[in-house]
Amino acid sequence: MPCRELKYADLDDWTAIEEWLEQRKDPDTKVDTIVRDILDNVKNRGDEALAEYTAKFDCEGFTADMLRVPTEAISAALKDIPDTDVAILEEAIERIRSFHNNQKEKSWWTTAEDGTILGQMVRPVDRVGLYVPGGQGGETPLISSLIMNAIPAQVAGVPSIAVTSPPRKDGTLNPYILATAALLGLDEIYLAGSAWAIGALAYGTQSIAPCDVLAGPGNIFVATAKSQLIGQVGIDMVAGPSEIAILADESANPAWLAADMLSQAEHDPLAASLLVTHDSKLAAKVKEELATQCAALPRSEIAAKSLADWGAIIITPDMEAGIEIINQLAAEHLELSVDDPWAILGKIRHAGAIFMGHNSPEPVGDYFAGPNHVLPTLRTVRFSSALSVQNFCKKSSVIAASPNYVAEHGDKIARLARLEGLEAHARSVECRNK
Asked: Is residue 318 part of a domain?
């Protein structure tokens, strides 16, 4: 199994590693023009454009009257999947909702002795649009994406949520997507995919009301559409290919480490799986396990290419150097596969989600534990965070100044305004003191 081995001793070694990983970004500028045309078409022609794109790429013969999934089809889907799976979905939803309930922020107020009240009012946005990728022609439903995007919006109190997902060739959605929507209490679902779905959610069409915030993963066309709409609507983030960094010591199980690296490698040929360790014997055993386990995977071809191009085992002289490069990598997912992860946690500055110890593999967070799996990639965790309730809220400052406040501070405010050459600002305060 070709997986490169790199050395890292100090920051002098970081430049070469960074230059290698930067190549994962490699933007395709041709997509920008294609997406811009799609968005313009949807903006100008609405449902008609959606139907044309969907008929061309997803479902032959698709028409505009097929866009919305009937409400009864959503609830009926619960009977189309096993009761055991319904129970698992219910428990996952409960755990994820419980975690996000802790993220809710409250409006707050302060009152001064002169009667002035200052504060911040937290309100949800009016409407959110969620995108759910089709997943291999609809046969690998990305139910976790729907759950992870819908729950923080619901906890925020968003009153209106629309979902779009590309139809299968027969014009239906996978029953697992519909059943999950039913369990979440979502009843507004449209059959549309790719950039045209994003355009419809942003601009609105004859059938779909425009949204204030868009969220959900997708391919390069979806990501490009979201990036082009920044400033017109809110978006969750423009995420790149998935990535995992693992910091391991001699207590780690090499078979488990290889399995965790492959859990990311099977996503996408551009996914990055990086193991950092000071134990060269462990590194050699992990390489052997990667070869054995990868060959047995259904998506072995994808995983093998990912490991060959963007996988690496990075050998450091000691744990401190390992922690240093982990912070430089600033990975989407970070596993601390060490004997005492809590002793290291305080030294971690940059990571999207941190998985503690040998029994916390990344898929635990992907599906079930509670934290959101929508995470920044490509080192953007240096300045951004996981999707949360806050992505679906906005905050308004509240200023209720008393007459005494204006009398005491009016001259100061007017002086500051005149320093900026804004005479009308100054006079609007001063007139209240005459």
From this structure: yes
User: Alpha-carbon distance 324 to 10, whole Å?
Assistant: 8
Which entry of 333, 335, 358, 373 is annotated as an active-site residue? Answer: 333
Instruction: For residue 244, tell me if it sits in a domain.
Output: yes
Out of 212, 235, 258, a domain closes at 235
- Find out whether 98 and 370 touch, Cβ atoms under 8 Å: yes
The CA distance from 382 to 44, in Å, is 39
What is the tally of structural domains in the chain? Answer: 3
> Do 424 and 338 reside in the same domain of the chain?
no
Q: Clarify whether 333 is annotated catalytic.
A: yes
114 lies in a domain?
no
pLDDT at 303 over 70: yes
50 DSSP assignment: H
Burial 392-422 (b: 16+ CB within 10 A, else e): bbeeeeeeebeeebbeeebeebbeebeeeee
- Contact at 8 Å (CB) between 330 and 384? no
User: Do 227 and 245 fall within a single domain?
Assistant: no
Pairing between strand 393-400 and 117-124? antiparallel
Domain co-membership, 9 together with 91:
no
Strands 353-356 and 393-400: unpaired
Nearest to 392 by CA among 108, 131, 102, 151: 151
Domain hosting 315: range is 4-24+240-369
**Separation of CA 45 from chain center:** 30
DSSP 118-167: EEEEEEE-SEEEEE----GGGTS--HHHHHHHHHHHHHHT-SEEEEEE--
CA distance 119 to 125: 19
Q: What is the DSSP letter of 9?
A: S
**How many angstroms separate the CA atoms of 284 and 282, rounded?**
5
Q: Where do we find the tokens 């009153």?
A: 159
> In the listed set 188, 219, 235, which residue is the last one of a domain according to the structure?
235
CB 132 within 8 A of CB 166: no
* Catalytic one of 289, 332, 335, 362: 332
Strands 108-111 and 333-337: unpaired
379 conformational bin, left if phi > 0, alpha if psi -120 to 50, beta if neither: left
Is 288 one of the catalytic residues?
no
pLDDT > 60? residue 130: yes
Q: What's this model's pTM, rounded to 2 decimal places?
A: 0.93
CATH of the domain at 74: 3.40.50.1980
- pLDDT given at position 356: 97
* Stretch 361-378: mean pLDDT: 93
pLDDT recorded at residue 30: 84
In a domain, 376, yes or no: no
